Amino acid sequence: MKPLDFTLEQMRDLIDIRDELARPRLGRARRSELTERLRAYHALVEHQLGRLRERVESAEAFARQLGDEID
Predict the structure, then answer these.
(1) How confident is the model at residue 67 (pLDDT cuts 50, 70, 90)?
(2) How far is CA 57 from each of CA 51, 60, 62, rounded to the nearest angstrom?
(3) What is the mean pLDDT of residues 46-67?
(4) Do residues 55 and 69 make contact, with C-beta atoms less than 8 angstroms apart?
(5) CB of 54 within 8 A of CB of 41?
(6) By three-state DSSP, how is residue 5 classified?
(7) What is the mean pLDDT of the chain?
(8) Distance, CA of 13 to CA of 1 (rounded, Å)
(9) pLDDT above 90 (res 3)
(10) CA–CA separation, 18 vs 44, rounded Å?
(11) 15-44: per-residue pLDDT in tens?
(12) DSSP string covering 2-61
């Protein structure tokens, strides 16, 4: 989670959510609430992945440019 720029608080929260969702006798309303929070984290991860991909593409383009200048 750290490479995705999650804060320590977000990491703890996500771990707690996943742990609680793993409980077999979790009530329907609580499970629904936790699932919604998990969906929000999923959306955040997808967003951060997009940002990382953009950074990698930019770095690759720069590396190609430098390689071209060497040749």
Answers:
(1) very high
(2) 10, 5, 9
(3) 96
(4) no
(5) no
(6) coil
(7) 96
(8) 12
(9) no
(10) 16
(11) 999 999 999 999 999 999 999 999 999 999
(12) GGGT--HHHHHHHHHHHHHHT-TT--HHHHHHHHHHHHHHHHHHHHHHHHHHHHHHHHHH
